[in-house]
Amino acid sequence: MNTAHRSLFSLAVRHDFRGGAYDEFSFVVPPATRAALTDMRAQLRERDGVLHVLIAVDDGGQPVGECTGRQLIFGLAPRNPWFAQYTAPCAIGASERPLFGNDASRDNLDALPRGVELCGLTPAITPQLTARPLDLRVTTPAGAQVALGRLDGTDTRWPFSAGLTPGEYILTEIAADSSTARRRLFIEPGLAASGCWGIVALTASAGHVANGHAFTLHLAARRDVLRYYIVVKPVNDADFNSIKILDTGAVDDGRDAAVTFKRVLPPFGSGRLSPALLDAGGTRSIVLFEAETAVARRARGPHGFELHRNGELLIGNLPQPGAERTDAQFVVHLR
Question: Structurally, how many domains does the chain consist of?
């Protein structure tokens, strides 16, 4: 007998750097999710960068397995090694991964990801507070206590193993002076060693089971302050002062406003290239054109940043930071 399947939900990824939907991630499926899929009589399919969860249905179109309320967890492993350089960072801690869920509304991913520390079933916790003794408590997000511990004297780490179900937990540190520190853990041994960038945890609703649903994970592009260093041996002051950079591509690119550049003469200040590095012999004039506003990175463009001298267009499209660049500083040598 052939078993029919229909969609429970799908997950697509849209990245501003790419200008739309893109096959940005491979989806890491931990053992706990595979077990849940078996119980749900569900299957996974990936096509053109979209993850599809399909559920088995009977002749009447009703699901064969129990799906409502089940949570499926997936790791997000970037396909591009430069992913972190062209993606806007999430507002989370340095040791945390972004967790995207549909907790506030079952039909939408939460507006902002939560920062979680990804770990296995026996995490060794290094506390944030230095006071001793120090009490530690692990609870579920709903507040149910699952583990307790205490550090005394010179203890620096707290290893615990409570046979926790994979998912999100809250770690609270409480010192004797009542000061506290709180952070989120995500217990999932199948992802802890995978090197994934982030996590998606989707909970199926009755509406998803009945009608299916399409989720989209929207990622913003990193924004940079463009800096163009023009190195030139000008004919005279008027020739040097005529050099300018104009943004003529805002309309064609669909940008809200043209980018303006301020003209900066040496010394340039911290975070900028040294004039001695740009002209070791000190025989040329240097001017920096620095964007007044940060510009979002794009795989193609933005376009229309032009270099002019004495009213003549010299370069129609100045270089832009692509995926692999760590900054947005460029040096242009003029004859």
Answer: 3
